[in-house]
Structure formats: structure tokens, C-alpha cells
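Cross-posting from the chemistry board since nobody answered there.

I work mostly on the small-molecule side, so proteins are not my area. We synthesized flavin mononucleotide and want a rough idea of how it might sit in this target. Sequence and SMILES are below. Is it possible to get a predicted 3D structure of the two together?
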Amino acid sequence: MKVLIVYETKYGNTKKAAETIGEVIKEAGNEVTVVKVDAVEMDSIKDYGAIVIGSPTYASSQAKSIKKFISSLSVVEDTKVVVFDTHSGDGISTGGAMRRAVIKMEKQIHKNSNLQKIMNGLQVAVKGIKGPLIEGELEKCKAFGEEIAKNL
Ligand SMILES: Cc1cc2nc3c(=O)[nH]c(=O)nc-3n(C[C@H](O)[C@H](O)[C@H](O)COP(=O)(O)O)c2cc1C
């Protein structure tokens, strides 16, 4: 299956998670494209059977660019979607799992009946604001990628 992985990033952690997830999905025999959200070619968006979307958590939400991208997915038909976020894993955010980008992205996706959520999203912790990924999180990304590949 053709799989598109779209991410936003400022410090590189979400990119790293996206590339790791993408590698695993590719190893499972899929055709994978990993791209930063500002470089997505919307003309070919309908070619993908599945889209994986990754966003840093900003003020308990997804990045604005990702919100806009998800809104633009009204043009696709029956596309499989799964999301992940990165967030600060050591205390700057209060409220825990419910106050992270994954929750907001899944709410946004739920409103679009052309998108099929195939799995619950993954929340990936980084150290402070700039990262790097906290130990063990990359392994979680790999396992997540394997699970996605099984659900395609
Ligand atoms: C303006 C700003 C707001 C943030 N708000 C939150 C937040 O509400 N909750 C949280 O857990 N992390 C928050 N963070 C930390 C980011 O989620 C973290 O910088 C991001 O996961 C790093 O991803 P990147 O390396 O791909 O840019 C915030 C970071 C910035 C710069």
C-alpha cells in the first residue's frame, strides 16, 4: 500500500519519530513517503491508502499547520488514518494524556467521515522542549509502525 507520513517539527523530534515509523512500515513491504507538512503535494493525496500524521504538542493541541492539513483531507475518500504526537515528557504540561495533540487530532479526524481511524494514536515523550526523545520512546515508535503495517 502507498503510505504517506506527514509531520510538523521545530526541533527534529517529530521528524525522527516519523522517519522511524516510516522505516518499519516500509520494511513490511509498503511504499512509504515521509514528508514535512509544508511540502505535502495535495494533488496526489488521493493516491495514498493510508496517511500517518505526527504533530508536536503546542499548548495541549496539534500544530496549526497540522490542523490545517487535517482540514484539507476532506478531499480524500475512505483513507486510513493514524496519528501520533510528541510532547514534553517531564512536567511542563499539566493534565497528562488528555492534553496532548493526539486527542485533538483524533477529534478532528472523527468529524470527517472520509477518514477511517485504524488505530489509537501514539504519544511520544521528549526531554523538556527541545528533546531528544526520552529513552525507550524510539522503540515505542518502532512497535507502533509494526502495528500500523498489520492494520493496513
Ligand atoms: C510554544 C510551545 C508550547 C508547548 N506546549 C506544550 C504542551 O502544552 N504540552 C506538552 O507536553 N509539550 C508542549 N511543548 C513541548 C513540545 O511538544 C515539544 O517541543 C515538541 O514535542 C518537540 O517536537 P519537535 O522536536 O518535533 O519540534 C510546547 C513547546 C512549545 C515550543
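Reply from a structural biologist on the board:
Welcome over. Reading the output above for you: The mean pLDDT is 94. The helical segments are 13-27, 64-71, 101-110, 137-151. Happy to explain the C-alpha cell format if needed.
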